[in-house]
Structures are given as structure tokens and as C-alpha cells.
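Data card: per-record layout.
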Amino acid sequence: MEADVPAYPSVNASKEPLLRNRLLDGSLMRWTCPSCGKVHYLDYPLLYHDPVNKFMIWHFPAGQEEDRIDAYGKQVAGLLPDYTCRRVDNVLRLAEKIQIFEQGASDVAVELSEYVFRQESAARANDDEEKRQVFSNNIFCHGLRFEDGRCAEFRISVVDDDGNHSYYDISPAIYSDCDAIVRRNPALDPGKGFVTVDYQWLKTKIR
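The structure for this 207-residue chain is written out next.
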């Protein structure tokens, strides 16, 4: 069956707040076949722009390359030097970055906090297989809340190899400590352009 499925190559959070909400709840890139009822998850390039909070996130599906990202990243850095730009390869990571930057938080500090969570979880593992699972899991920031400029709530989602989600509340002090580390360490500055900041990136920065 052929069908016209709506796709959104770009979303402006200020002009299209409903699309922003649909990105966060997962419905924007989810389509249900009207004939058979099967749910399909769409995966296509999408540029998310939040002019109020001054960030852009370019979602490109894993395995896809796009030369214009580097060139456009340099243009944004020159024209909008106070913007934060990131590249992600899945919708969950896109939603994570939106929540982080809307709070004015550091995604590098979030990644470092998640790294600490991995290390502590691995230390509690009962065997090598459980430890392997800890490091293969995908971890996403599920929610951040700040009060008077300080992290007051930090919640993460852990997605295992089978796609199951588990949720954990993390001590806000971990984020605060990691944020202080990031601010003191120039090597943890991602730089300008559409940089991928994730667990793999962080591992290249930690010695």
C-alpha cells in the first residue's frame, strides 16, 4: 500500500510549538498504517531550531553522511556565535538534547553524569555479562529541572539491547559536580559547528 506520510525537514520551536511537543512525545516521527494498523517509526534528516534558547540540533539517521553539515556549521558559528549546535543520529537523542538545552544545561555535563552512572552500575554488576550490558545500554536524559540556577532534579532512561526502558533518579549533586569539572576543563569543550556529543565522544576525552 502506498501512502503520503508527512515529513518535516525542519522544525522551528518558536513558530511550531506543537511540532516541538510531538517530537518530545515521539508522535512526530511515528506513523500508523490506516489499512493494517501497523506502527512505523520514520527516520529522516531533520533540523531543529530554537531561536529563543539559541540552539540547533541536526538529526541525521545513523549511517547517513551529509557534507553540508560541516559547511553550515561554520556559517552558523560565524553568524550566530552564541548558538549551540549538535548532531544526533536518533530521535531519542534529539529529544534529550532539546530538554537539556531548554533548561540552559550542559549536554557535556549530562554525558559525564551518565558516565559516572555507568561506572557505578558496572561496579555493582554481579558478573561479566551484566557488566557488558551496562556499557552497551543506551542512556538518555529523561528530565532535568533547575531551581535558582542549580540542578534540583535529574532523571535518566536506560534502554537495553531489547529496547526496554528503565528509569532512574540521579542525585542532582552529580550533575553539579560534573558541570564544575566541564567548566574547568577546556578539553571537554566540543567547539563550534554541528558536533556529536555522546558517550562515544566523551570516551575520547577522558583519560
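Known properties of this structure: The helical segments are 17-25, 68-79, 91-102, 107-123, 128-136, 172-184, 199-205. The beta strands are 10-12, 30-32, 39-41, 46-50, 55-59, 84-88, 138-147, 150-159, 165-170.

See the next section for split statistics.
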